[in-house]
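Forum > Structural Biology > Help requests

Title: Can anyone predict the 3D structure of HAD-like protein?

Hi all, first post here. I have the sequence for HAD-like protein but no way to get a structure on my laptop. I'd be grateful if someone could post the structure tokens.
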Amino acid sequence: MAPMLSTAGPIHWILDFDGTITKRDTLNTLVNISAQNRPDSNVLAEWKRVSQAYMDDYKATMQNALPKDTHRPSTIASEKLILGITEEVERRSLDRVSESRLFAGLTGTILYEGARRAVETGEVQLRDGFQDFFRHVQDKQHAFHILSVNWSQRFIAACLHASGTVLPQKLSSVYSNELDGTEESMPSSGAIVPSSGNDSLIVSSRNKLSVLSHLREHEQTPIVYIGDSWTDFECLLAADLGICIRDDPMTSTQRTLAESLERVGVKCAHLEEINRIDHSAVFWTRDFHEVSAWLESPALAK
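Reply #1:
Sure, ran it for you. Structure tokens for HAD-like protein below:
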């Protein structure tokens, strides 16, 4: 990590989507789109079932990995081991979702229209300052990618488009997962598969790090990574500058990440302190207004 990153030169921005670009997680919105598309189905009941199965699996796995009297990890290496264990929980969850056919019948058009409605009603909202920040990125012709464990690349792009944000490379700017069939304009089987351009599913911190490393090989400019949750842990540390999004009060996912960083000794000061900190660190910010303020700081534009 390099806190004294110049904002005058090129920057490669890699951002998480849910809870980072958006104010809150959008998974329930994706489920609601499927329920609205099949009003006579049991989509919501199935979603409740697979959600409970996920929570039960996660709790049992964590209790097995970290018994009650065991100390939580205190090093980055040991934290990564725990994150690796949770990856298997996420994969089992995706298998349950695919088998339940929760998203069967959805098409790219249905996803687009559902995302548009969600933005219009305020169900999906971009974080404050994102659009001004994104205009700055475009004006400077900086590289920009979204890296997400979200289940639909097309849904992400549709939410942004409906919010007035058009990605320069459209879908190729988004690394996530996809609903099977939607890439061929066919009704989805409901299976969650790798999106176009990806060789494997993105469900974990390790998967995200693998994509970031791949992008770094092709774009030899400093990387700024922005995220809000535990799955962003490894990317925040691997980037030239890592920025955490934090609300006041913090959400449960933000708090998990904050506790993780603190536990392994990674300091996390507010972004406005970046030119006064003499050690490597991850920084935090409330919104993209504060990121833009950093970008416009004359102290760093050298």
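The longest strand covers residues 143-147. The chain has a mean pLDDT of 93.
Shout if anything looks off.
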